[in-house]
Structure formats: structure tokens, C-alpha cells
Amino acid sequence: MPEGSVRAVLVAPLERINFIPDVIDVYGTPTQINMIAKSLIWHGIFPEVELLGLISCSMVTRAYKTKKPQVKIPGSGEIAWGRTEEDEVSIVIPPEYIDKVPSGLENIKRLNPYPPPRFWWYEPIAPRGYTITYRDYEEWKKRKNPQA
Predict the structure, then answer these.
(1) Contacts with 53 (C-beta within 8 Å, 6 or more apart), sequence order
(2) CA–CA separation, 22 vs 96, rounded Å?
(3) 70: which residues sit within 8 A by CB, 6+ positions away?
(4) Who's near 11: CB < 8 A, 6+ residues apart?
């Protein structure tokens, strides 16, 4: 933002907001934020993703200036002062797109259920013609590292 162009920054939880926000920063697990991003993609709105490291908070101003949603990995300031947890990421959404999220989530739920299925719910199947067995693998490991 140009120097002197910002006089104040207002921050509030969405359920208690009493002003119209310039951007909405939603935090969640990577899976939750992925679902929100996909809900926007359903409507043809493609969030941008870029890793800026120490200055990830600048993605908030980028979303404001470009009017494009931004997916971000929290930086050190968000972790130290914002109490962002180590398993959280966020998506910054301009308010004109926020109403697309619920309908997008509804439309993608058949393709991307939440919570997502876990690996133990299915048994992997080897491709046709694949001849290596688990016993072959164990023998290979012994030949590769006889001390194991």
C-alpha cells in the first residue's frame, strides 16, 4: 500500500463484524482451505498461491489490490502475534466472492467429501502385470543393507 494511504486496520471475527470488510482472511487446516479454494474454482474464481516466507501478511494487501483470493502459509508474525497454529493455512477472500463459497462447497462435495476418506478405507491394488511381491521387497532390502 502506498505510504500514508492507510489510517487504520480493523480486525474482527466474521460473526461479530459491524463493518464492511475490504478482505476476509479465513484460517483452517490445509484440507479446509483447499475446500474453500475449490468452492471458488467451481465458480471460475482461481485463488493465487505464492510463498512469500517472512512477509506472507502482504498477501492480505495483494488480495485487496488485485481483487483475487490469495492462499497463504502463515508467516512468523501471524504465528508469534496472531496465535496461528502450526497446522493452519489461510485464504484471503475479497468480500465480493464470499457468497460463492457456500454454493461452491455444495457443488463440490460429491467430488471432494469432507472430511476426506483416509487411506485405510481401501486396499491398494498393484497394476496388472506387476510381479514384485512383498517378499521380493524384503529380500531386496536385505541385499541392499545386510545389517538390517
Answers:
(1) 75
(2) 9
(3) 47, 48, 49, 50, 59, 60, 62, 63, 91, 92
(4) none
Distance CA 47, CA 132 (A): 42
What is the H or E stretch that residue 33 is in? helix 30-42
Residue in the block written with cell 474464481? 45
Give the count of beta carbons closer than 10 Å to the beta carbon of residue 1. 9
Q: Which residue has the cell 466472492?
A: 97
pTM, to two decimals: 0.76
Residue 125's alpha-carbon distances to 122, 130, 131, 133, 135, in angstroms, are 9, 10, 12, 12, 16
Q: How many residues does the chain have?
A: 148
The Cα–Cα gap between 30 and 35 comes to 9
How many angstroms separate the CA atoms of 23 and 92, rounded?
A: 6
Q: What is the per-residue pLDDT for 18?
A: 93
pLDDT value of position 40 = 98
Walk along the chain (148 residues) in steps of 10 and give the mean pLDDT of each run.
Answer: 89 91 95 96 94 79 94 87 90 96 94 76 69 81 80
pLDDT of residue 122: 64
